[in-house]
Amino acid sequence: MAPLTTTVDQYKLSSLPTDGVTAVRFQPGKAAPQFLVASSWDCTVRIYDVASGSQRLFYQHSTPVLDTAFSDTVHVVSGSLDGELKLFDCNTNQNQTLGSCLRAISTMHYNSNIQACITASSNATDSKGGAQSVHRQPSTVYTMDSIRNQLVVGTAGRHVLIWDLRQMHAPLEQRESSLRYQTRCIQCFQMDKVIY
């Protein structure tokens, strides 16, 4: 079934999740990505072919999946309500457990510079690679993103923290957001040599 395209940037997908979608991410590293990954409260992670609009692959967790991301062009990481962190290989259709957190993985981000998945849990902690290295945050983490060696975290109470991923003993900067409402999404970008 071909997707019904209304514009160049919109696609209709088949085999949709049966419950609420928690995250949607495009495949990295390409101007025109071939795949899209979506996680859901129905305990599944689905990988779609953008050109055809069809579901190519899917795998399951035992509890709802709260976030997902591509770690590279063929591997997907996902975190669930029970704190399980999984890695899925799109070439072999196999998944493995990378680690687990004590609480639900509320958000996650894969940093290719340090080649690690950074997860945030509902108990106001974040960690690199499951429970390898745990760092306390001032409150519940709602969003995060990284670029190169910097991690930007948005928490409850409108706090924004900037961390150096090489030295996570203390944040480089911590401030209250100038926005009136809670920050729910942070995206890093670089202009010239300055990271925003």
TrEMBL record:
Q: What domain of life is recorded for the organism?
A: Eukaryota
Coiled-coil annotation reads none
Which is an annotated Pfam family here? WD40
**Which InterPro entries would you find in this protein's record?**
WD40/YVTN_repeat-like_dom_sf, WD40_repeat_dom_sf, WD40_rpt
What keywords sit in the KW lines?
A: Repeat, WD repeat
Its name, as the record gives it, is Cell cycle arrest protein BUB3
Species per Swiss-Prot/TrEMBL record: Schistosoma bovis
